[in-house]
Q: What sequence folds into this?
């Protein structure tokens, strides 16, 4: 899904973002895990600088090794940091890939993203596909996501500060509420697949 859509469809749907990436942008990939998304973007836009952040130190080390193997260490780095405290300002783009719903305090994370962005910067949020009403998610994809959410996503959020527990079937309305409470004034659905929703906030 990411290999097919991230650079070809999702990022081009975000207004002027691709133009900035081609010219040389500063990007923070928050909740980067093993760095797959960071590396994919770095290979596509070598003039841009990508910094992956994750609070899980072993994952960050794996990401560094993967970047070295992929040959993108020159424009990519990885640091151990949480979503509400990662360093830096004036990012042209901040990305959250399938991780906002896992966070205990996603509103706090949203507020930190706003502070870290350049005045014309963009926050890209990718979340599991979900409709806003429970009954509209009773389908094979929704069932799989609800199962994962019950066993993984919701307990992970509850174990953190605030513990909002959005879950993997939060839907657009809940995500918009989190983003606007964090201080953003513009929010839209930019793209979608049967498995993901892609949002743009500014």
A:
């Amino acid at each position: 899904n990411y290999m097919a859509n991230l650079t070809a469809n999702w990022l081009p749907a975000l207004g002027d973002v691709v133009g900035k990436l081609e010219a040389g942008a500063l990007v923070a990939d928050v909740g980067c895990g093993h760095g797959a998304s960071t590396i994919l973007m770095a290979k596509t836009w070598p003039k841009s600088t990508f910094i992956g952040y994750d609070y899980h130190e072993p994952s960050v080390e794996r990401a560094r090794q993967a970047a070295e193997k992929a040959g993108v260490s020159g424009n990519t780095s990885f640091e151990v940091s949480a979503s509400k405290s990662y360093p830096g300002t004036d990012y042209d783009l901040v990305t959250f890939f399938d991780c906002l719903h896992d966070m205990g305090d996603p509103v706090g994370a949203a507020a930190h993203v706003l502070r870290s962005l350049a005045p014309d910067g963009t926050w890209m949020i990718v979340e599991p596909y979900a409709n806003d009403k429970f009954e509209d998610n009773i389908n094979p994809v929704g069932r799989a996501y609800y199962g994962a959410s019950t066993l993984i996503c919701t307990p992970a959020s509850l174990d953190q500060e605030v513990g909002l527990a959005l879950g993997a079937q939060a839907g657009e309305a809940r995500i918009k509420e989190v983003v606007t409470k964090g201080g953003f004034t513009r929010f839209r659905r930019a793209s979608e697949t049967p498995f993901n929703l892609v949002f743009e906030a500014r």
